[in-house]
Design a protein that fits this description.
The protein has 374 residues and is of the alpha/beta class. It has 11 helices and 12 strands. A hairpin with a 5-residue loop joins strand 6 and strand 7. The structure holds pyridoxal-5'-phosphate.
């Protein structure tokens, strides 16, 4: 049996090696390492794929969030609502910009932000909401946008984990996650669903004014070389990474399909086990399974993780400490009551899921999990 990894980037690379190697060598030969043609091609192709007007590439998913928030001209102390149950990058940039993160709870079934919790958290100081499409499923964007628009609040979607996911509106209209809010962001970190071979990220928007602003901020606050209108930063996607992404984007839907097949195998293997809650699909979204995450009831989760480790099976807890319990945010000194976030934080475990898994591996993993739990 091939070694089991949380994500198998090497086997995936070998399947597209011929194409990727050529594209990378072409960049080396052109020596247009910064802002070369592949960067422009990739922005155009991703915009077409997502059905969004503007894609602005940048250096990583954390920068994308930071730049999107910078584009809103918020004042120190303005409030930004985000889930606590997410990767730290989502909330860290809020504090970095001297804004105040306001943590809300998530839904038990979807792991994504809970609308009632968002509504309750809105105050006159709320200027932005950052929903996170966690593990590969979209937040329920239609009610969220209704709520935000009613209060004149910006929405920046953190779509680092759900690129390619489709959200369906009540009238049947479909849009890609990340393109529904005022802005969306993503990460091309290698292990993400659309990963490059280093760091990378992008911002999306249908708003021409915001697009121009994002571009300017990512380029030292400038549209004209050596003339700087506003304080920005330097955040670029390397040409080599764009060349890799141009190839991988063509495979993205097939990659999502492979991930869904893995999830379906796990679902049926664990069906009916009363200690294991498998991912619950929401009717308004597809799932691209960035992670396959179980909720375990009455199981020693770290014991299971250790049992699996002895059998050379990796399993991860995403994330062991939620935002509202992180030391870096204690300065905000707010006593949060987020029972679902705390409940999930104690019970989730993610199993290996990627585009290169075979049945032998899946059989071995599911058998090993059940052996411990039953
Ligand atoms: C990975 C990730 C990010 C950050 O992306 P980087 O490219 O690593 O900076 C932000 N938010 C979420 C939800 C992520 O999973």
């Amino acid at each position: 049996m091939r070694a089991i990894q949380m994500v198998d980037l090497k086997s995936q690379y070998h399947k597209i090696k011929h194409e990727v190697d050529k594209a990378v060598i072409d960049v080396l030969e052109s020596s247009a390492f910064i802002n070369g043609q592949p960067v422009h091609d990739f922005s155009d192709q991703l915009a077409t794929y997502l059905g969004v007007k503007h894609v602005i590439p940048c250096a990583n998913g954390t920068d994308a969030l930071q730049i999107a928030l910078m584009a809103l001209d918020l004042q120190p102390g303005d409030e930004v609502i985000t889930p606590s149950f997410t990767f730290i990058a989502t909330t860290e940039v809020v504090a970095l910009l001297k804004l105040k993160p306001v943590f809300v709870d998530v839904d038990k079934d979807t792991f994504c932000m809970n609308m009632a919790s968002v509504e309750k958290a809105i105050t006159p100081k709320t200027k932005a909401i950052v929903p996170v499409h966690l593990y590969g499923q979209s937040v329920d964007m239609e009610p969220l946008m209704d709520l935000a628009n009613r209060h004149g609040i910006y929405v920046v979607e953190d779509n680092a984990q759900a690129i390619g996911c489709d959200y369906t509106f009540a009238d049947g209209k479909i849009a890609k996650a990340g393109t529904i809010g005022h802005m969306g962001t993503t990460s091309f970190f290698p292990a993400k669903n659309l990963g490059c071979y280093g760091d990378g990220g992008a911002m999306f928007t249908n708003d021409d004014i915001l697009a121009a602003k994002l571009k300017k901020i990512a380029n030292h606050g400038s549209d004209k070389r050596y003339y700087h209108e506003i304080v920005g930063c330097n955040s670029r996607l390397d040409t080599i990474q764009a060349a890799v992404l141009n190839i991988k984007l063509k495979h993205l839907d097939a990659y999502a399909k492979a991930r869904n097949e893995v999830a379906a195998y796990y679902n049926s293997a664990f069906a009916g086990n009363r200690k294991i809650i498998t991912p619950r699909p929401a009717p308004y979204t597809t799932h691209v399974f960035h992670q396959y995450t179980l909720v375990l009831e009455g199981v020693d989760r770290f014991g299971l993780q250790q049992h699996l480790a002895h059998k050379q099976i990796p399993a991860m807890v995403y994330y062991p400490v939620p935002g509202h319990r992180q030391e870096m945010f204690q300065q905000f000194n707010v006593a949060y009551d987020l029972p679902v976030t705390d409940y999930l934080t104690e019970r989730v475990i993610s199993l290996p899921i990627h585009t290169e898994m075979d049945e032998e591996q899946l059989k071995y993993i599911t058998r090993s999990v059940l052996e411990y739990i039953n």
